[in-house]
Every structure is written in structure tokens, then in C-alpha cells.
Amino acid sequence: MRKKIGIYFIGTECAAGGSGRKSVALATKLASKYDVTLISDHCATPKELENLYGESLRGVKLFELRIPVQRAALRLVRSRAGRPLRFLRADSMLTNLRCDIDRIYHRQVRDLGLDVFINNGFASNMPCPARCGIYMCMFPHPMKGHPRPDYGVVHGIYDRIITALCGLTPQILDSYDVITANSRFTGEWIEKMWKRRAVVLYSAASDMGPSGRKQKVIINVGRFVGPMRSDYKHQLTLLEVFRDLPELHKDNWELHFIGALHADEASRRMLDRLRSEADGLPVHLHLDPDFEALRALYRCASIYWHATGFGTSAELQPRSQEHFGMTTVEAMSAGAVPVVIDSGGQREIVEHRVTGFRWKSLDELCEATLFLARDRRALETFSVRAVSASAQFGTAAFVSRLESLLDSLN
């Protein structure tokens, strides 16, 4: 009898992000050897998921968790949370409360009778509901009674109150056989915050190649969220950099921003501002493209920009960094040369001046971009190296390492 494996991810806002992409990729690849169930609270159909991720869900079962009244109420509050709640970091509060609903979902998942449970839910507080379990951590959230390391005195007091009620406990972590980290950067913070050793398992980045006919295009891929959020992608910062490079405009270079819009007022305002400030510049915005449209943009792009974490410290504000960087790997797989911030997981993906460039200042970002734009031969050389380097972070490598973990559980 084939082993029954459940792969869990929650939160509609994760649907177009790394959590959903990794979960779907893993489910489709394991379905040939195991009885796989993809567990989520999404209302998406198999066809919609296939269009979003470019993966066939043949052989994969979908189990939709029943949404409790509490989650519906939290979604309503989140959508309405604006300026009056900003000081209280309403988004952080709702994330903690949302994750506590994992406990409600525990019984629903337990009734599936799984042999192995793979928890890929962001900031999940769900105890393992199966005989064996793997907890996939994208970045550690607070243990019960302990504030996050990136808060000041006021926010620290507030965070203690929240985590005292619904934070992660050692018992939850101990219910899993293995904890994985999506990068060495994340693994180091797991050890600091959770006092646990994690197995580094780089996230499954989709292969967006082969490289197409390259155009004078710079791309940035990431959710459009408000600047107050810890996962802000700094599109406004990159737009300002591009505006100050008239040499690129004259040479017909374009900047393309690609991503899904987060469903809150602050994010909508940020997007409106981005549109307004981009007016008159060779800048294009692409909202919620399907997989093939996204792949086409990657394939025509020559350069990939990434700025998540700009203006913050990796030691003092670790949550604001890019903890891995799936979009960087995807861009590399399609031959776009990465020019990315020298922080977080980006340091593990891009080898400076070999497979791309890492920058510490906006001046360095400009310098690297102009070098590539002016020297077509160098651009082509870096492109070939980027494609080759991306394979170690691809879906095949991810699944191979995960299967080794599954074998070890036996």
C-alpha cells in the first residue's frame, strides 16, 4: 500500500506566493510514488492551480479545510484595517490569530489518516496530526511569550501580549520529526529563536527557461504590498533608481513590475502611487499574470532586480529580508542576470561577479546595471552562468532532498 502524504499550506494570500508554489510542485512530483493530498483553505479548482503554477495536478487529491467563522471574521477585519490600527501592527496581530486557527484545523487533517504530514503553512502553530511530520519553516515566528527580534520596546510589549495568548510552543515543534529551513539564513534564526537545528532544504523554484530572445527589459517579481509591511518588496525604491538612469531610457530599456496585489488598503495605495510615479517612464505593471505569461516575461528579460530588505538590518530586522528568493532563482533559470541586494538568502543564491551581482547601496545597483546594459557580451556570459547555477535550487533538487528526508523517517 502506498504511503499517504498530506501537504499543508494556508492563507489565500499565499496562493500566488512561495508557499503555494512549493506545495503544488512537491505534490505533483511525489504523486507518482505516494498517495498525495494537497490540504488548504483555498477555494481554487485544480484547473486554476494548474494555470497559476504551470503544474499538472493529475493524481493529486485536494482537501479544502472548512473555514471557521473566526477566519471569515479575521479576513473582514484585515481588509478593513487601516490607519487607526497601523500603530498596533494589525497585520501582525491578525497573522498570529490566523495561525492559531491551525489548532481548529488539526482535527480535520487528523481524520485523513495520513502517514506523513508536511506542514508548509506560513507561521503555522498546528501540532503534527500524523504518525510522522516535517515542519517546513520559511522564517521562524515567535515562541509563546517571546517577542520577535525586530521589535522595539513598545512593539515588544505588544508582541509579548499576543504571543502569550497564541504563540508557538516547544510541544508543537517536538511533535514533528524534522524541521526544515528554506535557507541557511533562516536556519540560523531557527536556532536563535527556537533553539532547534534545522535541515536546510532550499525552496522549489520553477524552471522558467529556456532563455528566450533577450530584450532590453529589467524585471522585478513580487507581491505589491504596503511599505509598512515586513515583506515590502521596495518597488517604489526601484522605480526611483530607474528614473535616475536616463541613459537606460534613451537606449530603450524598460522596467517591468510583476506580482499579485495584497488585499488591503495600504497595498492598494502603494500600487496607485507606483502607477502615478511611473507615468511617462518606460515602466510597465503586470498584475496577477498566469504561469505562461509570467514565464514569457522572465524569458525576455535581460536583468532581474531585487531589493527586499533595503534600508533594514539583517541582524535587527531579519523578517524584513528575503529569506530565500524563489523569484531570483526563477529569473536565473530563464537567463535573466540577477542584480540583487546583498542580504538574507540572496547571498546563498547569487555568487557575486560570477552568476550575477549583489549590491549594498543604490549606487552599486546602478553601477552593476549600467555595466550589463553597456556590455552585451558580458551580459550573455553572466546569463549562461545564471542558468547553470539555478539548477541547484530547482524543483528536481528540492524533491530529491525531500525524498531523502522521507526515507529517513522510515
Can you put this structure into words, describing what you see?
This protein has 410 residues and is α/β, with parallel strands linked by helices. It has two domains: 4-204 and 394-409, Rossmann fold (3-Layer(aba) Sandwich), CATH 3.40.50.2000; 217-392, Glycogen Phosphorylase B (Rossmann fold, 3-Layer(aba) Sandwich), CATH 3.40.50. Helix content is 44%, strand content 15%. The chain is built from 18 helices and 13 strands. It has helices at 18-30, 46-53, 69-80, 83-86, 90-100, 102-110, 153-166, 170-174, 184-194, 235-243, 246-250, 265-278, 291-300, 326-333, 346-349, 362-374, 376-390, 395-409; strands spanning 4-8, 35-40, 60-64, 116-119, 132-137, 178-181, 199-200, 217-221, 254-259, 283-287, 303-306, 337-341, 357-359. The strands form two sheets. It has a seven-stranded parallel β-sheet with strand order 3-2-1-4-5-6-7. α9 (184-194) links the parallel β6 and β7. α1 packs across α18 (395-409), α3 runs antiparallel to α5 and α10 packs parallel to α12 (265-278). The relative contact order is 0.12. Residues 81-96 and 151-156 have low confidence and may be disordered.
Blueprint of the fold:
Elements: E1 4-8, H1 18-30, E2 35-40, H2 46-53, E3 60-64, H3 69-80, H4 83-86, H5 90-100, H6 102-110, E4 116-119, E5 132-137, H7 153-166, H8 170-174, E6 178-181, H9 184-194, E7 199-200, E8 217-221, H10 235-243, H11 246-250, E9 254-259, H12 265-278, E10 283-287, H13 291-300, E11 303-306, H14 326-333, E12 337-341, H15 346-349, E13 357-359, H16 362-374, H17 376-390, H18 395-409
Parallel strand pairs: 1-2, 1-4, 2-3, 4-5, 5-6, 6-7, 8-9, 8-11, 9-10, 11-12, 12-13
Helix pairs in contact: 1-18, 3-5, 5-7, 10-12, 14-17
